[in-house]
């Protein structure tokens, strides 16, 4: 094995390990996406996310992730987000307006051809053992929304 080839392999290994360590976020306790039909997400097709018991009492950030294709016809989407916390039985219902284009006219998401967006929607103080059920549906005038491929939920400890 040549010296250059060995150096290249070691360099690639170091870069791979560094990238893996940087991408890990130990504060993320839940990160999951549900698929929607690209031909159209129906208004009454509610997506459900069940988050198991929290390991510790803390303040948690919650974000909605949306992946869209070029088929999506609007610059934003309005979502109804309903959150149930157990065993307390508290319910929180919010309308979240997700704008894909900034005031400067630039796309806020990341990607090429298909874009991913993250929108913060809640900060919750949860106790150890609390579980959450989150229900998301769109609240647009159009009954069926084409071009939304996935909707997700990320919960992270502050």
TrEMBL record:
Q: Which residues form the signal peptide?
A: 1-19
Keyword Acyltransferase on this protein? no
* Assigned keywords, A-Z: Lipoprotein, Signal
User: Where along the sequence do coiled-coil regions lie?
Assistant: none
Q: Where are the transmembrane segments?
A: none
The name on file for this protein is Gliding motility lipoprotein GldH
In its UniProt entry, the species of origin is given as Xylanibacter muris
């Amino acid at each position: 094995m040549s010296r250059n080839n060995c150096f290249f392999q070691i360099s690639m290994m170091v870069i791979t390990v560094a990238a893996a360590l940087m991408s890990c976020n130990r504060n993320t306790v839940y990160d999951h996406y549900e698929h929607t039909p690209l031909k159209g997400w129906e208004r009454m097709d509610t997506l459900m996310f069940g988050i198991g018991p929290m390991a510790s009492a803390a303040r948690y950030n919650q974000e909605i992730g949306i992946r869209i294709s070029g088929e999506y016809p609007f610059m934003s989407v309005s979502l109804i987000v309903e959150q149930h916390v157990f065993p307390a039985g508290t319910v929180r219902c919010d309308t979240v307006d997700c704008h894909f284009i900034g005031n400067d006219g630039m796309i806020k998401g990341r990607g090429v051809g298909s874009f991913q967006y993250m929108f913060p929607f809640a900060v919750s103080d949860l106790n150890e053992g609390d579980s959450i059920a989150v229900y998301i549906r769109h609240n647009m005038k159009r009954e069926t929304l084409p071009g939304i491929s996935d909707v997700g939920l990320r919960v992270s400890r502050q």
